[in-house]
Design brief:
Structural class: alpha/beta
Radius of gyration: 26 Å
CATH class of the largest domain: Alpha Beta
Oligomer: single chain
Strand order of the largest sheet: 3-2-1-12-13-7
Shape: elongated
Distance between the termini: 48 Å
Number of strands: 16
CATH topology of the largest domain: Rossmann fold
CATH superfamily of the largest domain: HUPs
Number of helices: 18
Strand content: 15-25%
Bound molecules: 5'-O-[(L-methionyl)-sulphamoyl]adenosine
Number of domains: 2
CATH architecture of the largest domain: 3-Layer(aba) Sandwich
């Protein structure tokens, strides 16, 4: 796959959107964050250095209004909500490396350095602006873009007509370069469908981007370095978080040196920006043109996934149907929640949450993976006292293991996570089939079949060792539990799982990995 800057085989910088500090985490936020977490864990497991960034978006009108509604200072609201997100991510086993908050002083300084650089390069001008503003989306829409009854076309929320002095970024000047970049790098925006949407959007002339708000109207933001009476538009402020966390910009650099020359020693450019399709335009149009404006390399890939809907309806606070990932976790544990969301949604498409779908996926875990683990461990305990002899051949499932390792790696690299997870589950299915074919219970009864039984059990044990490694990114807790039943201290790395010696392990009969759960009506 071609890309703007050379791929980074040894390092991966992965980002989620930073979530608005005005609402509670829900399964939409959890999904993007799981997706990034799976990739982060997969790459770490493959021996790469990983920087996994998430955080909270804390400026702008939305936050200011929510704080006023709750009778709080905006900073106090942000502190509380950043805490809520951190707690949720810790409960859901998110292994982020850095949690960024846009109210951090480091970020403030980087935003100011960035905007100053745009100004110095002649990409910013001042003008009177009139447009329809949606606080919900935190962006302007033109009259033509508005939805029925003059509402914002994305969420159908009210908009207000605003006329004021703004600073503008000459985004239009970069339209041709952006189109060329997308055309020359077919894998840049994933999946294909979303790439085509962006190209379609770029067939119309690109306007310039208002990058400031008068402080008189909105006080809660980062002041422009060249005009204290204006704050930075929240989307510009927010997108720059990816750069702040990368360490590419040193705002404390000596005068004359903008501190923009250090990209080589930093995490920049990001390998994958992950997000929902709702905010693809800001990431695939605003962000790359802003980067072109300051002269920095573009992110290597952008992945826009679909929407979680509930049954047939959109999930929204006002409809009262928001699914709380922590409530699901309280009933099923973190791993089944992770598994459901990641396995159920084809990367890029919309998917629907229903309690029935959730249970079907849970049953799959119990009946396929859980069942395999308990029958294999109990047979090794019953027939061989928990130890496999060194002489046992373990190649009975070798072809399936190799094929699965390739399929999982390919799914992860192509950002088709649901396919990677499906391939891992298929291996467990194949191993269950092998049990049926080999009938170890008959081999155990048959005179002279000792070596055959050893081979059956060793091949199945090998499969379980590999499965514990394959399931680690999606279900770190269950993978560790399985590894412990197999007598391993930790889940093996992918490249070790295939070859580590089996005869040194003491297998214990596994307690059910996925106990039966009845769904309340
Ligand atoms: N603060 C901005 C992002 C700035 S990034 C520089 C924002 N925040 S948000 O809190 O609204 O989170 C939006 C993201 O949450 C979406 O892009 C998506 O990742 C996730 N989701 C929110 N609702 C969702 C669904 N119903 N389904 C799937 N994911 C959605 O936008």
């Amino acid at each position: 796959m071609s890309s703007s800057s050379p791929p980074s085989p040894d390092r991966q910088y992965l980002t989620t959107p930073i979530y608005y500090a005005s609402g509670e985490p829900h399964i939409g936020h959890a999904y993007t964050t799981f997706l990034a977490d799976v990739l982060a864990r997969y790459h770490r497991q493959a021996g790469r250095q990983v920087m996994f960034l998430t955080g909270t978006d804390e400026h702008g009108q939305k936050i200011q209004e929510e704080a006023a509604r709750r009778n709080m200072e905006p900073q106090a609201l942000c502190d509380a909500m950043a805490g809520r997100f951190r707690e949720a991510w810790s409960d859901l086993d998110i292994s982020y490396d850095r949690f960024i908050r846009t109210t951090e002083s480091e970020h403030r300084a980087v935003v100011q350095a960035f905007v100053q650089r745009l100004m110095d390069r002649g990409h910013i001008y001042e003008a009177e602006y009139e447009g329809w503003y949606s606080v919900h989306e935190e962006r302007f829409f033109t009259e033509k873009e508005l939805g029925p009854g003059r509402t914002d076309p994305i969420a159908g929320r009210p908009v207000e007509l605003i006329r004021e002095k703004n600073y503008f970024f000459r985004m239009s000047a970069f339209q041709d370069d952006l189109i060329r970049h997308i055309q020359e790098n077919p894998g840049w925006i994933r999946p294909e469908k979303r790439r085509n949407e962006v190209l379609g959007f770029l067939q119309n002339p690109l306007g310039d981007l208002s990058i400031s708000r008068p402080r008189s109207r909105l006080a809660w933001g980062i002041p422009l370095p060249f005009d204290e009476e204006h704050v930075t538009y929240v989307w510009v402020d927010a997108l720059i978080n990816y750069l702040t966390a990368s360490g590419a910009i040193r705002p404390d650099a000596e005068p004359g040196d903008q501190g923009f020359d250090d990209v080589a020693g930093s995490w920049w450019p990001a390998d994958v920006h992950l997000m929902g399709k709702d905010i693809l335009t800001t990431h695939a149009v605003y962000w790359p043109t802003l980067l072109m404006g300051v002269g920095l390399p573009l992110p290597r890939r952008i992945l826009a996934h679909g929407w979680w809907i509930v049954g047939e309806t959109k999930m929204s606070k006002s409809l009262g149907n928001v699914v709380d990932p922590l409530e699901l976790r309280a009933r099923f544990g973190s791993d089944p929640v992770r598994w459901f969301l990641l396995r159920e949604m084809p990367t890029g498409e919309d998917a629907s949450y229903t309690p029935e779908r959730f249970l079907t996926r849970y049953d799959e875990l119990a009946n396929v993976l859980g069942n395999l683990a308990s029958r294999v461990t109990s047979m090794i305990v019953r027939y061989r006292d928990g130890r496999i002899p060194e002489s046992a051949g373990d190649q009975g499932l070798a072809q399936a293991l190799d094929d699965t390792l390739v399929a999982v790696a390919s799914g992860m690299e192509r950002l088709r996570v649901h396919e990677a997870l499906g391939a891992a589950m298929d291996l467990a299915r194949v191993a269950n089939g092998y049990v049926e074919d080999r009938e170890p219970w008959s081999q155990a009864r048959r005179e002279g079949a000792e070596a055959d039984l050893d081979e059956t059990l060793a091949s199945l044990l090998r499969a379980l060792v590999v499965l514990s490694a394959l399931f680690l990114p999606a279900m770190p807790g269950k993978a560790a539990e399985l590894a412990a039943h197999l007598g391993l201290d930790t889940v093996p790395r992918l490249n070790e799982a295939r070859t580590l010696p089996l005869h040194t392990l003491t297998i214990r009969k596994a307690t059910p990995l996925f106990p039966r759960i009845e769904l309340e009506t």
